[in-house]
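SEVERITY: medium
COMPONENT: batch folding queue
REPORTER: lab tech (J.R.)

DESCRIPTION
The queue accepted two submissions in a row. Attaching both inputs and their returned structure tokens so the on-call engineer can compare them side by side.

ATTACHMENT 1
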Amino acid sequence: MPNRREFLKAGIVFTGCGLLGSAQQPSGQAARRRQVVVSGRRVKTIDVHAHCVVPEATELMGRQTSPQDPLVLLPERLRHMDEQGIDVEALSINPNWYALERDMARQVIKIQNEKLAELCAAHPDRFVAFASVALQHPDLAAEQLEDGVKKLGLRGAAIGGHVNGEELSNSRFDPFWAKVEALGAAIFIHPQGIPEMQKRLQGNGLLTNVIGNPLETTIALSHLIFDGTLDKFPGLKICSAHGGGYLPSYADRSDHGCLTFPAQCNKAALKKHPTEYLRQLYFDSLVFSPEALRHLVAQCGSSQIVMGTDYPFPWTTTAVDHILGTPSLSNAERQAILGGNASKLLGIVS
């Protein structure tokens, strides 16, 4: 475990906030890199859902990322990737800066994006990254996204499911969405929880996470659909964590809600049925069972599913095997979900 000075010198660490479990084990002997082969063809596997932090930026915000928390520094992360058969990770930082005023937000994001770009440049065959953006200042976020993509080589941006309680579909964010569409950048939405539901989600079972996080994603995506954002910006490439929350599992109710209560669905004239928008969104594969993955593919299309692990949170160490072992998938679908779809989404050369 690094001491505090070594910790703060680290440009990027992969931290699980006390939830790493077996990922804390010492690196030991270098692992042999697992080669994933489907139907006789070597597949480049890509994990779109991998977390990290930049201690320097965290400190600048007046917060501490304790060196006593379990850490996974670069050698350990590469070892875990090799063991699991993951060739490339798309790194993202969960937004915790939406309350910052403009100047501080600019400084924090600059540090984070430059550190992400440095890591990717040092290991171009193993990492790409999503930029951080200060979405509470939409014009600044658009500027940060453009700089991240054009100057730093980042592949898009990672954002939360809401911005200080404001929905992502609020017209205030249209300048950001316009820039995203113009750049052809990918957006990764990761939930930040639902503060107004904290009281009901307290108690046993980690309900703030297991219910609250997928529920927030469901709400965010539903607003992007029903408020007309996806019609206004049809070229958006949006990927959501945790299989899109509950939306793909119960999306038909969205269609029938408008049929049953048409007066409640007239604020934005949608160009398609709500369920049809799922075919233009992307979803990670973190849905835990072969039946859940089968249903996600059936509802959204195999071309819209990408592999996600949520590393270093220990939800799964078998993301590759989850896809390989889902019997309903064809080999072509396995190849696409393991890496082909993400290659196209993020502009990664196969």
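ATTACHMENT 2
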Amino acid sequence: MFTGLIEAVGEVVELKAASGGVRLRLQTDLSAELEPGDSLAVNGVCLTAIVSEHGHVHFDVGPETLRVTNLGGLVRGSQVNLERPLRADHRFGGHFVQGHVDGLGQIVEWRADGDYRWLTVSFPAALRPYIIPKGSIALDGISLTVAGLGDSCLDIMIIPATLSNTTLQKAAIGDRVNIECDMLGKYVVRAAELAGLSFTSVPAGETRH
């Protein structure tokens, strides 16, 4: 379990084909805090450390993870958001993030608003029932708040601290981002579906900024 509060930005130093997937090697100061078998959220994807030594962490990434997340588009030099799992004895911030990506979005617009930035991201139609105005959402593992919502896009205001301390500082229009919707909302929708309710025709509404 994670919070969406990014601890560090790591760098991809190697991608090596391995049994249909890849062996991913990252450079990060967090390596000293990790042991083999530990979990680490990489761009919001929960991965298991295979080796952690000398400032590097190795992960095995399977073909399904490469297909449904933006990890499949990583290259040497790519930067990724990193977060260790939530500790039970720590104060909780952000929101509950599982590290299980629900879909891929795409950055369609950046707009300046003083020192802040408006970020517009498109999302798959299948995720519409799980996204609400003022609700929580994780983009590339970052806990964010939906400020505006349309049928296929959402708006988020990015504060300077988030921009400076995550991969968003280098994100560009057209980049794909991992989307994880709020876990609590997914359980509510699933319970309603089992009760015979359908959400396929429910419009998201228009509260864009």
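NOTES FROM REPORTER
The domain at 8-83 is CATH 2.40.30.20 (Elongation Factor Tu (Ef-tu); domain 3).
No errors were logged for either attachment.
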